[in-house]
Amino acid sequence: MDPAVKTQILSLLDRHRTMSLATMRPDGWPQATTVGFAHDGLTLYFLCGPNSQKAANIERDERVSLTIDHDVPQVMDITGLSMAARAERVVDRAEAHRALQLLMHRYPEQNALPAPLPDPDALCIFRLTPYVISVLDYSKGFGHAELVRC
């Protein structure tokens, strides 16, 4: 991967805390939801309830798509990324605790809460491993995107 593109991807991940995540429903229709995320390099983490439709969808099909972006006043200022990734439930307790810490650091205003970190066994924590990343940067031209295979 080109180092400049990787730097751009990591910068986008650092600047955002939410993503739109699409999973595949059992009837074949995609389901997009907004979730908070954290990242460790190009690996993303998010959590959801164990009985959520997202968790059930991923259990059936690990393939997900996501977008990370923000609203801008001028169309030529659009930047963001889309990603095809594989989602895997984190079962290793050390990785689960690390993911929870990464997530809590993304929301520092939540650190003031008196409660301890949630028990990873009561949640579904997912690791997203990128397969293909499309980096959008309209400042380089309308619709400009660079495709990166991971």
Verbal overview:
The protein is an alpha+beta fold and 150 residues long. Helix content is 23%, strand content 40%. It contains 3 helices and 8 strands; from the N terminus they run H-E-E-E-E-H-E-E-H-E-E. Strands 1, 2, 3, 4, 5, 6, 7 and 8 form an 8-stranded antiparallel sheet that branches. A hairpin with a 5-residue loop joins strand 1 and strand 2.
Which features would summarize this protein structure in a list?
150 residues; alpha+beta; Pnp Oxidase, Chain A; 8-stranded antiparallel beta sheet; 3 helices; 8 strands; 23% helix; 40% strand; globular
In short:
The chain is of the alpha+beta class and 150 residues long. 23% of the residues lie in helices and 40% in strands.
